[in-house]
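thought: user wants a sequence for this fold. calling inverse folding tool.
action: design(structure=
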């Protein structure tokens, strides 16, 4: 079993200096914590996998495709693969639990090689 505590995940995310912290990954699922401060700009682009956002805390709006709605603690939003989406009008720090199925970037394509994007172990990242 893998189990996580929100406080520890928030600390790890803050220490990384990045808004997104992936803490669980398998071939079929990845889960992370995404934090946007009040007034921030969400620079996401569409993902190649379906995703679900669970709002842990905060208040904002989200636009998915041409739909827009308010979100706050307890809201759950599904975003289909390749659909443009972003959070905006962030009134209170937004803490989001994000799940990708399958794992984030599993379907990403390397257009130069005309095949799936693969990890380069030497770089420790996608190549």
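)
observation: tool returned 127 residues.
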């Amino acid at each position: 079993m893998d189990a996580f505590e929100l406080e520890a995940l928030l600390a790890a995310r803050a220490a990384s200096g990045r808004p997104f912290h992936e803490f669980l990954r398998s071939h079929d699922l990845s889960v992370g914590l995404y934090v946007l401060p009040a007034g921030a700009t969400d620079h996401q682009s569409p993902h190649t996998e379906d995703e679900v956002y669970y709002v842990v805390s905060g208040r904002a709006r989200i636009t998915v495709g041409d739909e827009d709605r308010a979100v706050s603690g307890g809201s759950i939003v599904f975003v289909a693969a390749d659909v443009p989406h972003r959070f905006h009008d962030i009134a209170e720090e937004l803490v989001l639990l994000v799940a990708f199925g399958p794992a984030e970037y599993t379907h990403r394509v390397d257009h130069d090689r005309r095949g799936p994007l693969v990890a380069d172990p030497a770089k420790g990242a996608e190549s």
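thought: summarizing for user.
answer: Here is the designed sequence. Residues 119-127 have pLDDT under 50 and may be disordered.
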